[in-house]
Amino acid sequence: MKNTIVSAKWVSEHIEDDNLIILEARLDQNQTKDTQIPGARLFDIKNTFSDTKNPLPNTFPSEEQFTTECQKLGVNNDSFIVVYDTTGIYSSPRVWFMFNAMGHTNIAVLDGGLPEWIKQGYPTEKPKETTYAIGDFQGHLNTDTVKNKEQILENIDSKKANLIDARSSDRFHATIEETRVGIRNGHIPGSVNVPFETLFKDGKYKSAADLTEIFDLNDKPLYFTCGSGITACILLLATELIGDNPKAVYDGSWTEWGQATDLPIEK
């Protein structure tokens, strides 16, 4: 198994380790807090670690972009990374997935994020602007981990992989309208729905036994989708705790599929 999740206690015991880097995952400015885990470095998904030239939100950056921006954060090839959310668990699994897709498996998600850290009484600090020594990190993208719409379309017929959708059940079953203009409602044919919120208890991942009951895993590869590729990674990380199936994320997710009128949908 890869490194997956660590507790606040584990981080507190290793926070002085020379090769430990703590990243705060941020998707948008609304996640900004006036406090952070000591020494945390900002991992800005939307503005720095996405392909901002792509009209779709939060799409995977190039290998070169990811490598350069990680080096700016002082990440080295031998770094052990812990990534956390300011609000619990939301975008940190996306960061975990990105590093794994780039060949760096020495990364784990802080279970419960900053709220759990504070709940346990561990120290915090105010964020401050910091420049880091350039790291020697080098990413190598495993293209099998990121799927495009053509591959997802082919999978509808081949059923090579199980496609799992992390969106809410009302979006999946089209009982509400999509909030984004021009996006149809419904889901990709053949996909199953596991709303990401169902994986948590008290802000942390449920036990392996509970997750095993939620996911009906077989030997097939697992593809994950959601609205824009973020919460799909919550499911992916959860299944990493209970199975070794090959896993991938549909990068365009429903934002791409739902606006493409030539692609089939179910409701």
TrEMBL record:
Presence of keyword Protease: no
Keywords per UniProt: Repeat, Transferase
Entry GO MF terms: thiosulfate-cyanide sulfurtransferase activity
Repeat keyword on record: yes
Domain Rhodanese: 16-126, 157-266
Name by which UniProt lists this protein: Sulfurtransferase
Source organism of this protein record: Flavobacterium cellulosilyticum
